[in-house]
Task: structure prediction
Amino acid sequence: MTGMTSLQVNAIGDQAPVTLHVAGEAWKFSITGVSRIGRELFISVVLQGAEVCTAVVHVRDHIVLGVTAKDILDRACAWLLARQGERHVYIELAETFA
Result:
C-alpha cells in the first residue's frame, strides 16, 4: 500500500521507558508499534499495571517535539483515571500547532 509504513517493537518487558503514576498505581507505558498512512500516524501502546491495557493513538499531520509526547501521556493518564474496566481505548489526539 503506497504511503503506509509500519514499525513493530517486540520486546517490552520490565524495560519500559516511561512509568505513569495514576491514582497511586504504576503503569508501564510502552509504544509497541507505529503505522503511518499518508500524513496520519497510528501509535499502538501497551499500558501494564494491575491489568494490561492497550491504546491506539491517532496523531494527525505532524509531531511537535516535546508537545505531542506530553499530550499522548496526558491523554493516557486521563483515560486510566476515567476508565471503568475497559482495557482498550482509541485516542484521537487534537492537532498540535508549533
